């Protein structure tokens, strides 16, 4: 027992510094350099200065706290397993998780998940142009929703029970060609349809302006309404023309970036494959924190976890015809692009 205690006491101080880069990457799902970057952004956040925690005799340095959170995010290990490994109490780990999630949400979130400026849109569109058929132009991003599995909530559980028959929180994301999130919306219960999530997000109110008055556009699946700033595929009624089928093929190939982004996010931060928490607010902040760290990793070119990446399966999330609000400008733009292919 004494030997086991000694091992856990020395894990952070003695074992972690000896990890080879690939060992560190495998365990914390990012490089040590990226962890240092995250620590540098968190260092100035209120409430994250070094201090002691319940049941502890010494202050816990920020770097250690960040590694504890990253191990939590990177795995499905229990709180007890992680706290034992880092030689802290479970209550300390829970408090550290809450403090860092709050700091990221309040002070770091908008620094790393933000819409590109109008002057950045031409370059972004040019990069998307080179993904697949270059005659499908002026794409600046792709939007979709992803279900984050959670335990059965204590309140209004039926609202969170989705069509795939598990409890979930919806993450709506818009990503660019590098799989970096430009916009996220987190918190809608899993039973809600993607189109309703969109229509109740800031993206719905500002999408036209964000896309430079409809000059540029996002790509979304058939769950969304067709807009001048949001292009969706043709519904396959069995009578699509060759050009319409071609449009759908190219659209799907370019839109795949958002499926890859969600896949990379969940592959890196495996806690998002099932979040076993009670507080919906804390669940949402955990998801936001994962998205922020995801973007930081991409900015640092920290992409080693791309191996074994899986794609999101969001098939069947089709909105009833009556709730789709397509507009004439969107239809005209889609026809124009279709004729060009």
- How many strand units? 5
- Tertiary shape: elongated
Range of helix content? 40-55%
* Biggest beta sheet attributes: 5 strands, mixed
Q: Can you tell me the residue ranges where pLDDT is under 50 for at least 5 consecutive residues?
A: 1-5, 319-323
| Sheet with most strands: strand arrangement | 3-2-1-4-5
The N- and C-terminal alpha carbons lie at a distance of: 70 Å
What's the number of helices?
Answer: 14
User: What is the mean pLDDT?
Assistant: 91
InterPro entries: HARBI1-like, HARBI1_dom
GO molecular function: hydrolase activity; metal ion binding; nuclease activity
Organism: Pinctada imbricata (Atlantic pearl-oyster)
Domain DDE Tnp4: 143-295
Architecture overview:
The protein is of the alpha/beta class and 341 residues long. The chain has two domains: 2-112, no CATH class; 118-340, no CATH class. 48% of the residues lie in helices and 10% in strands. A five-stranded mixed beta sheet has the order 3-2-1-4-5. Helix 5 (62-74) runs antiparallel to helix 6 (79-86), helix 6 packs across helix 7 and helix 7 (90-112) crosses helix 13 (280-299). The relative contact order is 0.14.
